[in-house]
Amino acid sequence: MRPVYVAGVGSTTFGKHLDRNLRSLGGEAVAKALVDAGIDRREIEAGYCGNALGAMLQEETGVGQHVLWEVGMGGLPIVNVENACASGSTALHLGWQGVASGQYDAVVVFGVDKAVMPKGTPLKVGAAEMEVRLGDLFPGYFAMVAQKHMEAYGTTLEQQAKVSVKNHDNGCLNPYAEFKKPLTVEEVLASPMIADPITLFSCCPNSDGAAAAILCSEAVVRRLGKPRVRVAGSVLATGLYDNQRDFSHWEIEEKAVAKAYEQAGVGPGDLSLVEVHDAFSICEIVHYEGLGLCARGEGGRLIDEGATAIGGRIPVNASGGLLAKGHPIGASGLGQIAELTWQLRGEATGRQVEGARVALAQMMGGSKEADARACNIHILIAE
Amino acid sequence: MRPVYVAGVGSTTFGKHLDRNLRSLGGEAVAKALVDAGIDRREIEAGYCGNALGAMLQEETGVGQHVLWEVGMGGLPIVNVENACASGSTALHLGWQGVASGQYDAVVVFGVDKAVMPKGTPLKVGAAEMEVRLGDLFPGYFAMVAQKHMEAYGTTLEQQAKVSVKNHDNGCLNPYAEFKKPLTVEEVLASPMIADPITLFSCCPNSDGAAAAILCSEAVVRRLGKPRVRVAGSVLATGLYDNQRDFSHWEIEEKAVAKAYEQAGVGPGDLSLVEVHDAFSICEIVHYEGLGLCARGEGGRLIDEGATAIGGRIPVNASGGLLAKGHPIGASGLGQIAELTWQLRGEATGRQVEGARVALAQMMGGSKEADARACNIHILIAE
């Protein structure tokens, strides 16, 4: 396996784009990534598209092909990938494999979704018969995770609320974010109860948006003369179906990150910043522990200490995360990569983590039956 | 890139399985492939699932994970792939890349769909806004292909009907086929008109079903002691958006097959048998030409001569093809691979092509806007 670099990234703003379709959003992200990389679109040898909801919500299949035609790209192999919230990060993993294995010198990976739905419509992602039709939806599942974490470690409602407050503060600094309004702990706690103990402002929104990255070999990134951001670790893992599992952590995440640290030759102490899948505020606390940013059970203390704020020891979700930046399902994984690339290049104006050199992105998605349907860890290093 | 082998295959029967879900069908195919290969499921390092309609028709996402949990497999990377009719063959292509690049020694690739729909429901695969909502559905598109081919080359209605007759004859010999009733040319021509000149018996059905293959390295196939069927060529191509294109052939197919022949070091004259995407009878005639089995415009003559029947010079769709074997959209590409593997191992009882040594599978899928959204060519060689 040879080194793979992020030559360029692009993103739409995340939020409500009721007047735009998947092609338009995806096309904007891809066009921006091509321009950012300074690469001719005809050099791109393969395309990988992450999309989770196109078929279900827009009756649209073949989204990747339609997006690339929108920017005048055809003839190259194109693969559409679905791994729920991890669709975009799975597309990234496949593109990384394509370049790392020497098959391609330059590929485009992108994610796009239109997830804004009429108020009250549940997000039907998962095993239809086993979960969705039984009412086992995301807020209920993550409420059980929160209850278990509170019982096992004494994690408090205030600590969970502080995650929301931090990420909404960060969202105010990010021009790509959906929500740009600060919140207080009191407001989070007083917002409508969705599934005890999860309140409305502890939930991420379902958003519209797209993000893209150009991946390439060392020779290509040298020629392009771009700052060198290397994909030093790329892991895709799937949860085990295990009805005796402990809801207070995700074993699959712990295994995946151990593998990614080994690939990249770094450990949690080397990280400058992290983006995680904070679909609900409790998730971020569990991910602190799963990624080794603190010991198991210490996640609540980490947010109390302010360690994960911009300027803290290990900033998490400087972008605002899913909670404030927004969550266009299949696009979110690549939204993280756009953010981390800007951070590693020192271009994240207003929310820049000073001296950022090693960054980690974590995404998880899918069924609640197992630990997770898919978990991706990516580690980026500025060279 | 190192050699990749098909260690085992499995398939459900294709047809109406109204009482079974995606997991059940997919699980049967995967379990059969594991048994056929004689490999322990714990040796499988990655899974690639082709599924086109799960989200749209069953509200099911993450199909690959659910199928593998059904047979007790978790923890490995799993990717869900959508490329319309070419979903299964795209999963195969990704799995081939995984083993060929040395990343994995053994993977499972599978396809599954439940495509049987209430009578009169159109198959909504394509660009929703540009095609489906405008009524540009498959029978209408392929009727234009037929009209153009008839005008350009004098291809007759009888020649098209003969494709249906041949494939239904073959279906009678295949225990996996949906239709096992012979048809006459007169019956095909007299069946209800769907889109002039395409009649009902010139159309494939939308079926339920699943098929799977275990791919592995040379070391693994040697240890398993299985007959050695090598994936000598694997190509995924995407059509160009080109509103001046000629409807009488698919340029993308011609480009893809040239690349596959080069990879495999064979030409059309070396082929023992072929499986093609005969969604409508005209397709098979155009594919004869596209794959180089005859010159452009000579496809009608090839069926007249009986060259593509079992026992002919170059049997095409000995399985019955999509027309008679059935078309469970995302599974069909791997259904072809199961059939060709059995043929190359001399196990296709009743429909065996004697001395089969080199086989080609062709699938195409997706939008009608371009030549095709996705086109796969695979070449298998018995060693």
From TrEMBL, chains A, B:
Its keywords, alphabetically, are:
Lipid transport, Lipid-binding, Transferase, Transport
Give the Pfam families listed for this entry: Thiolase_C_1, Thiolase_N
Gene3D superfamilies this protein is in?
A: 3.40.47.10
A GO MF term:
acetyl-CoA C-acyltransferase activity
InterPro entries in UniProt = Thiolase (IPR002155), Thiolase-like (IPR016039), Thiolase_C_2 (IPR055140), Thiolase_CS (IPR020613), Thiolase_N (IPR020616)
Q: What is its EC number?
A: 2.3.1.176
A Gene Ontology biological process term: lipid transport
Give the enzyme class: transferase
Q: Does the keyword Transferase apply?
A: yes
| Sequence ranges assigned to domain Thiolase C-terminal in this UniProt record | 245-368
The name on file for this protein is propanoyl-CoA C-acyltransferase
Q: Which organism is it from?
A: Paraburkholderia elongata
